Amino acid sequence: MTNLPVVPHWIGGKEVTPEGTRTAPVFDPALGEETKRVVLAEQTDVDVAVKSAHEAYRSWRDVSLAKRTSVIFKFRELLDSRKGELAELITAEHGKVLDDALGEISRGQEVVEYACGITAHLRGHFSEQISTGFDIHSVNQPVGVAAIISPFNFPAMVPMWFFPIAIAAGNAVVLKPSEKDPSAAIWIAKLWQEAGLPDGVFTVLNGDKVAVDGLLTHPQVDAISFVGSTPIARYVYETGTAHGKRVQALGGAKNHMLVLPDADLDLVADSAINAGFGSAGERCMAISVVVAVEPVADELIEKITERMGTLRVGDGRRGCDMGPLVTQAHRDKVAGYIDVAIEDGADVVVDGRGIEVDGEAGGFWLGPTLIDKVPTSSRVYTEEIFGPVLSIVRVASFDEGVDLINNGAFGNGTAVFTNDGGAARRFQREIEVGMIGVNVPIPVPIASYSFGGWKESLFGDTKAHGAEGVRFFTRQKAITTRWLDPSHGGINLGFPQND
Ligand code: NAD
C-alpha cells in the first residue's frame, strides 16, 4: 500500500472508497511521478451507484423545469468563478498547459449555458383538430439513468458535452471518467452539490473495463454516451445496444487539412501548428495530416518548421506552449511512430525525441514532430497517433486530396484552406466527414449545433449536444386527445381513421 491520496467514487452525494478495493496509479505527466491512486469499481460498486442514481432520477424527473434551470444556472456561475481550480487539476493529471485546460472548460461551459434554456429545448408540438374533435400533442420526457464514459484527453469538456443536457432534461447521470485523470469529475460532482443538485442525480463511478461492462449491462441504465478510441467505441455500442440501451459512441479520428495552392500559407502554417501540436496532439479534432496540393508543400514545410522552432515545450504550469503526453507508455507508443516513418521511407523533417524542455527530466516528453512524404500505406498515415506528430502527404490535385480523405476509415473533422469559394463549396459538399472547417483548423461546433463524426468516428445515430443531444436524453410521447361532446360515436372496432 502507498500513502498517496486516493480518488474515490462519488455516490449519493458523498465520497465513497470501498474497503480493500483495487486501485490504479494517477500520474503528474510533467513530473513523471505517480501522485495519486484512483479506486476501480467492482460489479457491487456499479450496483450501488446505479441504484442511487435510479432512486434520485425518480424524484428529479418531477422537479419543475424552473427549479432545474435555477440549479443549472447556479452550477454555471460556480464553474465560471472557480474554473481556475479545475484547470489546475486537469493540468496536474493530463499535462496540457493551463490555458488549454481553461479553454476546454469554457467549451464545456457553453453546453451548460445551452442547458439553461432547457424549457425551450424540451418544447413539444401541438396540432389542433387532426380529426374532427381530436387534438394531438407531443412531450419530451427523460430517459432515466444515463451513463457517460469519457476519455482522458478532455476530463472536463467531454463529460460536459453530455451531462448538462441530461440533467436538465430530468435524467440522473453516472459518469465513469478515464482512470488516467479522474479528479476533475469529483471536483465537478462537488460543484453540483454546492449548486443545489439533489444527491444521487450526479454520480461518479471510477474504474476500468469492469465498471464499463457493469454499466453497459445493468438493467437500470437506460442510455450510454461514450467517447474514446474506435475499438472501444465499437465494443460499447455493440454491447450496450445488445442489452437494450440507447447508445451514442464517439470514436477516434485522423483529421486531414487540405491545402490548395491559392491558400494563405502563413495562415495555413499557423493553423497546422495550433491544430497539430495544441494539447500535444491529444485531441480528437487535432490535425494529423496536412494534404498539400502541389506545388505548395516545400514552401509550407519551411514555414511550419520555422514556427516549430519557436514552441516552448514543458510543464504546463510554467507558461509553456505544449505539455507532456499523458503517460510514459503513451509517449513511447507515439515516439515509436517516428521509427515506423523512417522504416517506411518518409522524411523526418523535425524529430521531437530528445527535445529540451522546461520541466522535470522524468516527465513524459515528446517534442513536436514533422514528417514529410508519408506513404499512405504506412501505419503513420493509417493509424490514429494521438500525439504531436504531423504528417505531410503531397497530392497533385484537389480531387486527389478529396479522394484521399474520403478513403480514410475515420470521419471526425477536416479542413480546407483556400481563397476559392467554389473549391470550398465543393469540398464541404463532397467530403465524407462530420465536422468541416473552411480556413478553420479545429471546427468544433458551438453548443447549439451537434458534435460528432462519420464512419469509424461515431457509432449510433446521435451526436453530442445541440438538438441531437436533447433528443438523445429524452423519449417522446404523442398524446391524442378528445374531450367528449354530445356527438361521440359509440362502439367501432375498426382501426382508427381520421375524418
Ligand atoms: P480509451 O478508448 O482508451 O478510453 C475511453 C474510456 O473507455 C475510458 O473511460 C476507459 O476507462 C474505457 N475503456 C478503456 N478500455 C476499455 C475496455 N477494454 N473496455 C471497456 N472500457 C474501456 O480512450 P482514451 O485513450 O482515454 O482517449 C483517447 C481516444 O478518445 C482517442 O482515440 C480519441 O480520438 C478519442 N476521442 C474521441 C472524441 C470524439 O469526439 N470522437 C473526443 C475525445 C477523444
From TrEMBL:
<feature type="domain" description="Aldehyde dehydrogenase">
    <location>
        <begin position="20"/>
        <end position="479"/>
    </location>
</feature>
<dbReference type="InterPro" id="IPR016161">
    <property type="entry name" value="Ald_DH/histidinol_DH"/>
</dbReference>
<dbReference type="Pfam" id="PF00171">
    <property type="entry name" value="Aldedh"/>
</dbReference>
<dbReference type="InterPro" id="IPR016160">
    <property type="entry name" value="Ald_DH_CS_CYS"/>
</dbReference>
<dbReference type="InterPro" id="IPR016162">
    <property type="entry name" value="Ald_DH_N"/>
</dbReference>
<protein>
    <recommendedName>
        <fullName>methylmalonate-semialdehyde dehydrogenase (CoA acylating)</fullName>
        <ecNumber>1.2.1.27</ecNumber>
    </recommendedName>
</protein>
<keyword id="KW-0560">Oxidoreductase</keyword>
<dbReference type="InterPro" id="IPR010061">
    <property type="entry name" value="MeMal-semiAld_DH"/>
</dbReference>
<dbReference type="InterPro" id="IPR015590">
    <property type="entry name" value="Aldehyde_DH_dom"/>
</dbReference>
<keyword id="KW-0520">NAD</keyword>
<dbReference type="InterPro" id="IPR016163">
    <property type="entry name" value="Ald_DH_C"/>
</dbReference>
